[in-house]
Amino acid sequence: MLPSAEPDSSQSSPNRDRPLYSSGDVLLYLPAPVNLATVTSAGDQVDVVILGPRLSKGISYDLLPIGLMEFSSGNHIQRKILAIPGDPSLQTIKSPSLEQLQLNYPGVIEILATWFENAYSDQQPDFLGVKDEREAVQFLQSLSL
Questions:
Q1: CA quadruple 72, 112, 80, 11: dihedral sign
Q2: What's 38's domain CATH number?
Q3: pLDDT digits over 56-75, tens only?
Q4: pTM for this model (two decimals)
Q5: Alpha-carbon distance 122 to 136, whole Å?
Q6: Counted domains in the chain
Q7: How far is CA 9 from CA 12, 64, 106, 116, 123, in A?
Q8: Cross-strand bridge partners of residue 61
């Protein structure tokens, strides 16, 4: 399970370079299709894509990681954890694994990849792929979260 995460619209992530936000997590031309959060601890931080209903800001939620999206931007890799709420009452997507997500919701990875590839004004990161929940957990364990 991920450390508790609070949805935010922070623009200070080192993985973000001048997003086209008008306010909150709404792009000038296209709203974010998911809840976006950043988990931070001991100087490390990771962006989290929370699949599910709109979550309230200012509240921490337990999350279950189900995948790890990777993008190439210049010389560095941007990673985004795919997660669902740990609370079953908040789970509109009941797929605790990447395999089940892709089986039950075909196209969701492509939709998210397209959104992130086009979300920033000064870069167009290339989608490298998505890894399963085991690799997402290993990535989180490699951080100081």
A1: positive
A2: 3.90.80.10
A3: 888 889 999 999 999 998 88
A4: 0.77
A5: 27
A6: 1
A7: 9, 20, 27, 15, 19
A8: 5
